[in-house]
Here is the input.
Amino acid sequence: MRMTLPTAVAACLLAGAAACLLAVPAGAGTLRRTCPSTVPVDGTPTRIVILRSTTCAQARRVLRLYDRGTRPGTWRCALTHAPFDHIDGRIVGVACGRGGPAGDLRKRPHAFLGTISASAPAPDAGDRGA
Here is the structure.
């Protein structure tokens, strides 16, 4: 069977698109990003680090609600405990996640972290019952 020029061009474009999709690493869409401003959590300036599938504005809203003691909808948040993980030289103080199975909040389909300066006092569970 002989291909016409438009059919041959379409076949080449389709093959090129498939090759591009295969070349993209699986984790490319899950790169973490740091939000530009901080949110006070128990009076400590907390910088938000987005892990996946949320925006800085949504993460700020969730973290503010959590700080006020209000459950932020379907989101789950928890303070971290020693030994603390570090991201970019900052202590991970709180983790929030939404969706997915129970377990590590950082592994949820929608997730972010709250980090504090390494020179700040370590986060304390205080009256949160954590």
Notes: The chain is about 25% helix and 30% strand. The chain has one domain: 30-128. Strands lie at 33-41, 44-52, 76-79, 86-87, 90-98, 110-117. The radius of gyration is 21 Å.
